[in-house]
Amino acid sequence: MSVLPLDAPHLTRAEADEVFANILDLKASAQEIEAFLIALSERGETATEIAAAASAMRARVNGIEAPDNAVDCCGTGGDGQHTLNVSTAVSLVVAACGVPVAKHGNRAASSKSGAADTLEALGLDMDAAVRCAQKTLDTVGICFLFARVHHPALGPIAPIREKIGKRTIFNLLGPLTNPAGVRRQLIGLARPELVPAYAEAKASLDTDPAFIVSGDEGLDELSLAGGNTLADVAGGQVTMRRVDAGDIGIANAPLEAIRGDDAAYNAAALTRLLDGEKGAYRDAVLLNAAGTLVVAGVTDDWTEAAAKAAEALDSGAVKALLAKWIELTV
């Protein structure tokens, strides 16, 4: 494999398939891989390249089985905003609404507390959760798919990525490589300008509904702070539109209102949410849960979806689901 210069034409799908197979199978040297990933990042990834890289990872994943209506709410990370764990809470809420959730996640990278860190602080035994993922998805309707366990092909190139010291195309691929093969998704990007290309990649990989979203401030989820870019992916087609929390009766709030910290801090906030605390964190969860429930096909009305999510919280169903999940993984 040769280095990709900054002025090189974009890779065809066949070329990209070969390149990423060579990278993941270590058929290129560390120096070649490093140079290629840096050049690709600086030039900017295309939809074709994102789809090819995701396909290469999917071909090498340790997967589990999920129902056809299973969903995931997952961001790429890397927004640097250090917010509370919104997608983690959304996953609990959506599962409590009766939709199976195969939550794909990891420990913190750019944030202070990733999904795995916060769930552990809430009392979930992460090692057991990984071992019991199939069982808990089948019985409770939720599981945690620890990225580092399900994607062993990424292990050998980890030192190369660490040496590069900045984000590469592999930091974009988590949501597209869910180990349960989930196709209905709310995917958050930290780069609004990348949403169209990412949506095109998603459309080429599968055809079930997905929303690709990004807050205008670069938040990798639907933001309360202002407008959001949303790409609606369905039937292999992409429709771009704008979404604002106010459109469904949820109050806008500054990003500071959902600022998080370490795992203990974020877990305490999530516990208060489950105990009925109102405020911006709840509103952010309701907004993103609404989008996820719409993608899941529960309803096509965002306001109705937000109301269903609120009812799941207020009835104690979300808190009960978390307790059952922890009980099954002890």
From TrEMBL:
GO molecular function, one term: anthranilate phosphoribosyltransferase activity
Superkingdom of source: Bacteria
Cofactor: Mg(2+)
Binding-site list for Mg(2+) 1: 87, 221
Cofactor annotation remark: Binds 2 magnesium ions per monomer.
Keyword Transferase: yes
Reaction catalyzed: N-(5-phospho-beta-D-ribosyl)anthranilate + diphosphate = 5-phospho-alpha-D-ribose 1-diphosphate + anthranilate
Binding of anthranilate 1, residues: 75, 106
Amino-acid positions noted as binding Mg(2+) 2 in the UniProt annotation, renumbered to this chain: 220-221
GO BP of this protein: L-tryptophan biosynthetic process
Binding site for 5-phospho-alpha-D-ribose 1-diphosphate: 75, 78-79, 83, 85-88, 103-111, 115
Stretches assigned to the Glycosyl transferase family domain: 69-317
EC number: 2.4.2.18
Pathway the protein contributes to: Amino-acid biosynthesis; L-tryptophan biosynthesis; L-tryptophan from chorismate: step 2/5
Gene Ontology annotations for the cellular component aspect, listed alphabetically: cytosol
Enzyme class: transferase
Keyword Glycosyltransferase: yes
Keywords: Amino-acid biosynthesis, Aromatic amino acid biosynthesis, Glycosyltransferase, Magnesium, Metal-binding, Transferase, Tryptophan biosynthesis
Binding-site list for anthranilate 2: 161
Protein purpose: Catalyzes the transfer of the phosphoribosyl group of 5-phosphorylribose-1-pyrophosphate (PRPP) to anthranilate to yield N-(5'-phosphoribosyl)-anthranilate (PRA).
Record note on quaternary structure: Homodimer.
Family: Belongs to the anthranilate phosphoribosyltransferase family. In the C-terminal section; belongs to the anthranilate phosphoribosyltransferase family.
Protein name per the record: Anthranilate phosphoribosyltransferase
Species per Swiss-Prot/TrEMBL record: Erythrobacter longus
Source species taxonomy: Bacteria, Pseudomonadati, Pseudomonadota, Alphaproteobacteria, Sphingomonadales
Gene that produces this protein: trpD
